[in-house]
Design goal:
Helix content: 25-40%
Number of domains: 3
Number of helices: 10
Oligomer: single chain
Shape: elongated
Radius of gyration: 31 Å
CATH topology of the largest domain: Rossmann fold
Structural class: alpha+beta
Order of helices and strands: HHEHHHEEHEEEEHEHHEEEH
Distance between the termini: 58 Å
CATH class of the largest domain: Alpha Beta
């Protein structure tokens, strides 16, 4: 008898939603007005909204790439919502007679496996559209402010006046009325950067791109293949005083990428900020990173992925180590985001 009871307990556990790992519990909240419809119809509408709300809470935990794919199948799922929401428990069904609305709260069980299957269908189509692995190179530079020129606000004053003079034989009395107006012009600060390429950035980004299935070619090996047109020194020069490369550098780089038979080029900056002390013997450095990927073979070289500015931080026993860790973390972060956007578009 005890053995049978234990068997029943184990069977119930194995068949329970949480044990299967495929059913996710989420709460959903829905609200509907019955000012222009029956309370029965309003209850039905509020329940439907609560189911959708539960699915939205579940999908909000997806990463950027998965979330973008889910957005494409969202209409399919919501149109057949009961196939993906296996069951629910009604927690609250409240009716507000003053404002004439019904509020419904449910605990829903979501069939994650069914949703994953729908996501896989889209991913499969995307991968079939891109059988050839994309060749990509990247030029990311680290920048640290060398000099900052601050400009004071320039004010332009405009004075309008009226005056009158009353004369007498021995004395004069004068009066005036002035109206003052104008404008203020503020010029942005001018920053001169120390710019360099950093091995830690290249290594971190190369690892993310290659493990994501992309063929990465180090830019240092492309100088001859690009006939000298893909030159990181030109990027360093442009980034010393601006946040983007010049049209001339971009044109030259694209011609070089074509000569080297590349599909994409990723560029960006990692701006090193101030450091602070977290605790005794622990320094922290912040890095702001931006990046984008340009298509070599499309008209006007479209931007197929972009990120930033986003912040990253690194810790270390001193400022130098903290800075290197911050650059490494930022490189990994921007590479993950860029590769996620590429996968979302079926670029592999």
């Amino acid at each position: 008898m005890r053995a049978f009871g234990l068997f029943v307990i184990v069977l119930v556990f194995l068949c329970s939603p949480k044990a299967s790992g495929a059913i996710i519990a989420e709460q959903g909240v829905g609200q509907a007005s019955y000012s222009q419809q029956s309370t029965k119809d309003a209850s039905r509408e509020a329940l439907q909204k609560a189911k959708i709300n539960a699915l939205n809470r579940y999908s909000s935990k997806f990463d950027i790439s998965k979330s973008a794919i889910y957005d494409r199948i969202r209409p399919v799922i919501e149109a057949d919502i009961d196939r993906f929401l296996t069951d629910y428990l009604l927690i609250e069904d409240a009716q507000d007679n003053e404002f004439r609305f019904i509020r419904v709260v449910i605990n829903a069980n979501i069939d994650a496996t069914a949703i994953e299957k729908e996501l896989a269908k889209v991913s499969l189509v995307n991968s079939e559209l891109s059988q050839k692995k994309a060749n990509i190179t990247f030029i990311f530079v680290a920048r640290e402010a060398k000099a900052v020129t601050k400009y004071l606000a320039r004010e332009t004053m405009q004075v309008l006046g009226e005056s009158s003079i009353k004369g007498r034989r021995y004395a004069q009395t004068a009066s005036a009325r002035l109206t003052v107006g104008g404008s203020t012009l503020q010029k942005a600060d001018e920053i001169i950067w120390n710019v360099s390429t950093v091995n830690e950035i290249d290594t971190a980004m190369n690892n993310i791109f290659t493990t994501s299935g992309y063929e990465v070619v180090d830019v240092v090996y492309l100088y001859e293949a690009s006939k000298g047109k893909l030159d990181s020194a030109k990027f360093i020069k442009d980034y010393k005083s601006g946040d983007d490369i010049s049209p001339e550098t971009k044109r030259s780089a694209m011609e070089g990428c074509k000569a080297a038979e590349l599909d994409y080029i990723a560029t960006g900056t990692l701006d090193i900020g101030m450091n602070d002390t977290v605790s005794e013997g622990i320094e922290r450095v912040y890095v702001s990173v931006t990046g984008k990927i340009l298509s070599v073979n499309t008209k006007n070289h479209l931007i197929v992925a972009s990120v930033g500015p986003i912040q990253s931080a690194g810790l270390g026993p001193d400022q130098r180590v903290a800075k290197l860790n911050a650059l490494k973390n930022a490189g990994e972060m921007v590479a993950r985001e860029l590769t996620s956007q590429l996968r979302m578009k079926g670029i592999q």
